[in-house]
Amino acid sequence: MVLSVSERTFTQEVLESPIPVLVNFEAPWCGLCRIIHPLLLQFHSQSSEQIKLVGVNADDNFKLSTTYRLKSLPTLLLIENGIVKERLEGFRGREDLLLALAEIKVKYTNRSQTYMPVTARV
């Protein structure tokens, strides 16, 4: 299940989160939002300890939509320590989103491991 966040809870749940947060800006009328929802749930089940997933209804939270300059829905923002690190929007299809989520997963779920140069890995 995805935590629903509003303007009132955004600071606490997202900006002050001790782990990175993937924010899904969506709306009930958005067909593509409904299509990607199962993919986001799958992503969350695989990385929930390292990346938090929250949903924001863009229609009900106009200040957040304006603050983050949403141009289209869905828009996904990966926010770490209050800073937008990744912005995903304008999906061309399911594979496009899966590839982007895989890249995020690799970047943000391997942080707990000790740093080792790429050339030294076997």
From TrEMBL:
GO molecular function: protein-disulfide reductase activity
InterPro entries hit by this protein: Thioredoxin-like_sf, Thioredoxin_domain
GO cellular component, one term: cytosol
PROSITE patterns per record: THIOREDOXIN_2
Signal sequence range: none
GO BP annotations listed: cell redox homeostasis
Domain of life: Bacteria
One Pfam family in the UniProt entry: Thioredoxin
Keywords carried by this UniProt record: Redox-active center
Domain Thioredoxin: 1-106
CDD domains: TRX_family
Family classification: Belongs to the thioredoxin family.
Name of the protein this chain belongs to: Thioredoxin
Organism: Iningainema tapete BLCC-T55
